[in-house]
Amino acid sequence: MTDRNATTQWTGDLKNGSGTVTLDSSNVGEFPVTWASRAEDPDGRTSPEELIAAAHSACYSMQLSGLLTAAGTPPERIDTSAEVGFGPRGEGFAITGIALTVRAKVPSIDADVFHQAALKAKEICPVSAALTGITITLDAVLD
């Protein structure tokens, strides 16, 4: 069992305030965050949705690699991008969906077998599982 930690320090009100997200477990950096970076132009700052996109693309790539390797067809390369939508919903704001786009180079694999592994990875990746209340789409193609 492992735990990972991050901390955010926020100063000010929602619209004009700002914060810093620190990746505590890895100590790889601090990242500025503002409401504007979330709902308008990022302008060199991050947002919770971008951090979710990073986590999801990394988790999905690892899960797909593990499934392909276990099936005897280890990948040469997996490129995954995650686009996390954010916008008004009801009386507030919400994550509106996630689109995963995957391009992979996997020698000696049938396209249907790859597609099934890609779908399974989407379902069982721990980040996907944590986000079950959100629609997650998948576009997976062999290079």
> Biggest sheet, open or closed, and with what strands and sense?
3 strands, antiparallel
**Average pLDDT, to the nearest integer?**
97
**Strand tally, please?**
6
Total count of helical runs of at least 4 residues: 4
Helix and strand element order: EEEHHEEHHE
**SS-derived structural category:** alpha+beta
What is the 3D shape?
elongated
Q: Order of strands in the sheet with the most strands?
A: 1-2-3
End-to-end Cα distance? 36 Å
Low-confidence stretches: none
What is the percent of helical residues?
A: 25-40%
Radius of gyration: 17 Å
List keywords for this structure.
36% strand; 4 helices; alpha+beta; three-stranded mixed sheet; 143 residues; three-stranded antiparallel sheet; elongated
